[in-house]
Amino acid sequence: MIDALFGSKTRIKLLHLFLNNPGKSFYVREITRLIDEQINSVRRELANMMKVGIIKSDTADNKLYYEVDQRYEHYVPLRAIFGDDQEATEAVSEPKQSTLDWQTKLDEIGGVRLAIMAGVFVPGSASKLDLLLVGNLASAKVKAFIKTLEKKEGRELNYSVVSYDEFYYRLSIRDKFITELTSNKHVILRDTEQILEKQK
Questions:
Q1: E strands along 74-186, which residues?
Q2: In what order do the strands lie in the sheet with 26-27?
Q3: Which fold has domain 99-199?
Q4: Cβ proximity of 42 and 10 under 8 Å
Q5: If DSSP codes are grouped into helix, strand and coil, which group holds residue 26?
Q6: Which site among 76, 82, 103, 110 is 20 to 30 Å from 35 CA-CA?
Q7: Domain residue spans of the chain
Q8: How far, in Å, CA of 118 to CA of 3, rounded?
Q9: Rounded CA gap, 197 and 189, in Å?
Q10: Which of 54, 28, 58 is nearest to 42 (CA)?
């Protein structure tokens, strides 16, 4: 049944392999052993999946490695279908956090003077950064917050924490990192000094 829906048995096996091992990469011969399929069939399906964007590749030690792209737009629902763990299903079934939840979480971290979300949190954003937190923040609290978010989202997140002085300096010199983030679609969760408003 699911084979007919997704096109081929090899593709189903590959989706199972990749979506149950986010953050882990495999080379072709390793994949053929793990899913017990012919190498030509595996290569063909990997090429198809690369074209769609669900997997990405990288070279190391003269080998081409493949892994699931956790930033792929349909990653979370596909993981809910093919993932074997409970977390994969929960990421889809739970509603997204509201702005009020975000504000409460930021209050719990303490000292957040500016917070911007983009990337996977904002539809249509091409930013590689998902969350920027600005302030003198306790590292342990930030890590715990990010861990909670990653569990809720069902994927790894790209985030950055900078001090307020550093952010102000980077903004004043039109630093590429800040410019790329603010020129992409983004949502300002908090801006206590309205620093971004003053820049307009």
A1: 114-117, 131-134, 159-162
A2: 26-27, 63-68, 55-60
A3: Beta Polymerase; domain 2 (3.30.460)
A4: yes
A5: strand
A6: 76
A7: 2-93, 99-199
A8: 35
A9: 13
A10: 28
User: Tell me, what amino acid is at 20?
Assistant: N
CATH topology of domain 2-93: Arc Repressor Mutant, subunit A (1.10.10)
DSSP-assigned beta bridge partners for residue 115: 133, 190
Alpha helices for 20-117 (secondary structure H): 28-35, 39-52, 75-82, 86-93, 99-109
Q: Which residues of 102-140 are buried (b: 16+ CB within 10 A; e: fewer)?
A: beebbeebeebbbbbbbbbbbeebebebbbbbbbebeee
Longest dimension (CA), the chain: 60
DSSP class of 120: G
* Sequence-ordered list of residues with C-beta below 8 angstroms from that of 98, at least 6 positions apart, any chain: none
Reply yes or no on whether the pLDDT at 170 is more than 80. Answer: yes
What single letter denotes the amino acid at residue 79?
Answer: R
- pTM value surpassing 0.70: no
Q: How does pLDDT run across 29-80, given as a tens digit for each residue?
A: 999 999 999 999 999 999 999 998 899 999 988 889 999 988 887 887 888 7
